[in-house]
Amino acid sequence: MDTAWQPIAQDSAKAAKTILHPTATPLQMVKETHTDSVDISEFVTRAEHGISEGSVSLTWHLELYGAQQPLPGQIVEFRLNNQQLWWGVIEALTDYRLSSGGRSLTLTLRSRDASALWRNTRRVTDLYPVATPLHIIAADVARAVGLQAEEINLGITSAVTVHSNTQLADLTAWEMLEKIYESLGMEPYFNARGVLKIISRDVSRQADITLTPERILSVSAAKSRPPLTAVRIKWLDPRLSKVSQQDQMLGNATITAGFFQIRQKETIHFSADSSQRAENTYLVIRQSANSGLVKVCEESYSQKTQTSGEILLKTSVWVPALMTASIGAIITTAAIPDATTGGPGAGQTIPIGRKIQAAAEVAVLLVMASIGTGMYEIWGTPYDFVHARNQTEAFDQNAPEWMENEIEIENDFVMDEPMAQAFAVRELLYRAMEVSSFSVEIVDDPRIERGDILALPDQSRLYVTNFRRDASPGSPAVLSVEGFRV
Amino acid sequence: MTLLTYVVQSEIRDAAKELDGKVLTRPALLVTDGVSMIYAVDVDIGQKNPLKNVPVSRANRALLYAETGAAVRLRRGDSGRYEVVGFSQEQPGTRIRIPVTLPSFLFGNAGIVTGIAPGMPVPITPIPPVIGPPVDESIVGRPLNYEELSTLGGYGLLPYGATGIFNGGVLQEIR
Question: Which domain holds residue A77?
Answer without folding.
Answer: 16-111
